[in-house]
From TrEMBL, chain A:
This is Lipoyltransferase 1. Belongs to the LplA family. Signal peptide: none annotated. GO terms for biological process: protein lipoylation. GO terms for cellular component: mitochondrion. Residues 65-251 form the BPL/LPL catalytic domain.
Length: 382, 178
C-alpha cells in the first residue's frame, strides 16, 4: 500500500512518464506536456463540511506540490468549524447546533472557530513549503475585490485577517504545515447568516479551564452588506482571475466532487475520520470543568447548589467530584453519580445512559432529587 | 519570509519516507539538535526529521550481556522558530506511552499554523515537560533547556545509525537551498 501510494505520489508530479493507463486522478493532476500549467483551480461540488475537509487532507497528502500550486474553492451547508486544538464545549453552543442541524467539524489546521454556511466562501491555497506566503494569498482576495468593487477598503492585518473598511472582519485564516507542503485556508463572508453566527458561537459549558487555543472574537460583516450587487459567481470569477494574475499562472478551473474515489482514492476513509466522535471531540485538549449546579425540587428551586469538579481527557470523564449538600441528597448517591460517569464520553446522551441504572435503583423523593441533579449535570455537557 | 522558508526547509530530511498510508502526512516540526552521548561521555550531534535528541548511552549493570540502554530528550531546534512562529499550544503524550519510529507523539500550534510531532526513534516516554501546558512559549524561548518536549528510552539503538549527524545534516540543508 505504501509503495503503491509512493509510486502514485511520484507520478502525480512527474508529468511525462505516462506509459501505463492511469486512473482519472492522475489525469486530473498531471497535465499533458503540451499544455503544462503549474497551477490548478478546483471548485468543490459538495457542500458537506466533512467531505470538503477530507478533500483538503487528500490534496495535502497526495499531490506533489513542489512544482504546482492549487487553489481549492468550497462552501458548506451550515457548520461550525473549530481549530485543531480547540475545545468545542468552550467555543460553540452544541445543544443549539443540534436543534438547528448545524454540523460540528474539527479541522487539521490551527486557529479559531468559524461559522460556515452557503454565504461563506472558503479558499485553500496549496503550495510547497518554499512558496508558503499567506500575505500574498490574501492579496489575491483583496486585489480581486478592489477590481470588482473599488469602493471597498479591504486590508490584511498582522494576524492575517481581512478587515473591511478598517473595522469588520470578513476573513479569517488558518494553516497547516506538513513535510514538504503547506496549506493556507481562509473564509470570506459574502452573505452568511450573521445572526446564526453570533448565536451559535458561544460556549455550551460554563466553568471550563483549559489550555486549548481560544478564539479571538471580532465584529464581522458580509461583503454584500457593503456591496449589495456583488454576486457569488462574480466574486468567484474575480478571485480565480486574480489568483492566476498574482502567481503568473494559467490555471484551468475544474469542478470536482470530494466523494469521488476514482479522482481521490482513499478520500472516503479520511472523511470518516473527520466525522468521528474520536476526532471531533476526542482530540480536545484536557480540560477541567468547575461550576455550580442549581438544584431543584420538582419545578421549584431547592435553594441550594452542588459544586461540580470534573476533569475530561480525550473527551472522556477522567474524574468527577460532586459536592452536594448531604441533607438534600445522601453522600452515597452523589458519590455514585460521579463514579458512574468515569470513563464515559463527556456527552449528555452517553452520560444519561450511564446514569439510567442508578436512577432506577432509587425511588420517591430521592429519585426525584437524583433525577434533577443528573439533569443539571447533563446540561453542563452541552 | 524567505528566511522563514529556508528555516522551514531545514525540517526536511531524506531519511524517512513519507508515510502516505497515514491519513495525514508526517508533518514536520522544526528539527532540533540531536545530542547523543557515546561511551566516552562526549555529546554527538544528530539531526532528525522532526525533533532533536539529547541523550545518553548507559551500560546496563544487571544484564550479563551488557546490553546498552539509552535515553533521549527531545527538543525543538532554534533555527525553525522563524517558520513556526510563537508556539501557543503544545500537546504531548502520556508518560509510559510507547512510540514507534515516526509515530505521532504530539502537536504544536503556533500563531495559526498547526503541525504534528513525530518520534524519530522507538521507545517509551519516560517524562513530559508539564511546564509547556501553561507556558508553551518556552519552546521558543529556551528550547534546549526549559522548553524540552519529552524524554524517552531508546529501544533500538540501530535507529540512531540511520539519523544524520550534524555535518551530514548541514550538507543536506544546503542541498535543499540550492
Amino acid at each position: 500500500m505504501l509503495f503503491h501510494l509512493r509510486r502514485r505520489f511520484h507520478l502525480l508530479g512527474a508529468g511525462t512518464r505516462t506509459q501505463q493507463a492511469w486512473t482519472s486522478s492522475s489525469c486530473l493532476f498531471m497535465d499533458p506536456p503540451s499544455c503544462r500549467s503549474p497551477g490548478l483551480v478546483l471548485q468543490s461540488q459538495s457542500t458537506d463540511v466533512y467531505q470538503n475537509l477530507a478533500l483538503e487532507d487528500w490534496i495535502d497528502g497526495h499531490v506533489d506540490l513542489q512544482r504546482r500550486s492549487i487553489l481549492l474553492l468550497w462552501r458548506n451547508r451550515p457548520a461550525v468549524v473549530i481549530g485543531r486544538h480547540q475545545n468545542p464545549w468552550a467555543e460553540c453552543d452544541l445543544p443549539a447546533m443540534r436543534r438547528r442541524n448545524v454540523a460540528l467539524a474539527r479541522r487539521r489546521s490551527g486557529g479559531g472557530t468559524v461559522y460556515h454556511d452557503l454565504g461563506n466562501l472558503n479558499l485553500t491555497f496549496f503550495t510547497s513549503k518554499k512558496a508558503y506566503d499567506r500575505r500574498r494569498n490574501l492579496q489575491v482576495i483583496s486585489e480581486a475585490l478592489r477590481r470588482v468593487r473599488p469602493e471597498l477598503d479591504v486590508q490584511a492585518t498582522d494576524r492575517f485577517d481581512l478587515l473591511l473598511n478598517g473595522r469588520y472582519k470578513i476573513s479569517g485564516t488558518a494553516s497547516r504545515l506538513s513535510r514538504k507542503s503547506s496549506y493556507h485556508h481562509c473564509t470570506l463572508l459574502h452573505s452568511a447568516d450573521r445572526s446564526a453566527l453570533s448565536s451559535l458561537l458561544r460556549p455550551s459549558c460554563p466553568g471550563i479551564h483549559s489550555n486549548a487555543t481560544p478564539s479571538v472574537p471580532s465584529p464581522v460583516a458580509n461583503l454584500t452588506e457593503h456591496a449589495p450587487s456583488l454576486k457569488w459567481e462574480e466574486l468567484l470569477e474575480a478571485v480565480v482571475q486574480q489568483y492566476n494574475s498574482e502567481f503568473g499562472l494559467i490555471s484551468p478551473s475544474r469542478l470536482v466532487h470530494p466523494a469521488d474515489e476514482s479522482l481521490f482514492p482513499g478520500v472516503g476513509k479520511m472523511e470518516a475520520e473527520l466525522r468521528s466522535w474520536e476526532w471531533t471531540f476526542g482530540k480536545t485538549p484536557k480540560f477541567r470543568v468547575e461550576t455550580q449546579l442549581e438544584l431543584r425540587d420538582g419545578q421549584a428551586a431547592a435553594g441550594c447548589s452542588a459544586e461540580l469538579l470534573m476533569d475530561v481527557k480525550h473527551g472522556l470523564v477522567e474524574s468527577c467530584r460532586l459536592d452536594v449538600p448531604a441533607d438534600w441528597l445522601p453522600v452515597r448517591l452523589s458519590r455514585s453519580t460521579g463514579e458512574v460517569l468515569l470513563g464515559e464520553r463527556f456527552c449528555p446522551h452517553r452520560a444519561a445512559a450511564a446514569l439510567a441504572a442508578l436512577l432506577r435503583s432509587e425511588s420517591g423523593q430521592l429519585q426525584g432529587r437524583l433525577r434533577n441533579l443528573c439533569e443539571a449535570l447533563l446540561a453542563v455537557m452541552g | 519570509m524567505k528566511m522563514a522558508m529556508r528555516a522551514a526547509l531545514r525540517c526536511l530530511s531524506g531519511n524517512f519516507p513519507p508515510r502516505l498510508s497515514r491519513l495525514s502526512p508526517p508533518a514536520l516540526v522544526p528539527a532540533t539538535r540531536l545530542l547523543y552521548g557515546n561511551r566516552s561521555g562526549c555529546w554527538r550531534t544528530f539531526s532528525t526529521t522532526s525533533v532533536h535528541c539529547k541523550g545518553k548511552e548507559k551500560q546496563s549493570k544487571t544484564s550479563s550481556s551488557t546490553r546498552e540502554q539509552g535515553w533521549t530528550q527531545l527538543s525543538m531546534r532554534t533555527d525553525n522558530h522563524e517558520a513556526l512562529g510563537d508556539v501557543v499550544y503544545c500537546g504531548l503524550p502520556e508518560v509510559g506511552q510507547r512510540l514507534e519510529q515516526m509515530d505521532e507523539f504530539g502537536a504544536l500550534e503556533s500563531v495559526k499554523a498547526a503541525s504534528e510531532l513525530y518520534s524519530p526513534l522507538t521507545g517509551e516516554v519516560t517524562a513530559i515537560n508539564t511546564e509547556l501546558a501553561e507556558n508553551p512559549g518556552l519552546v521558543n524561548k529556551s528550547c534546549y533547556a526549559d522548553g524540552w518536549l519529552i524524554k524517552m528510552t531508546i529501544e533500538k539503538p540501530e535507529e540512531l545509525e540511520k539519523l544524520m549527524d550534524q555535518p551530514a545534516y548541514d550538507k543536506f540543508i544546503k542541498s535543499l537551498e540550492e
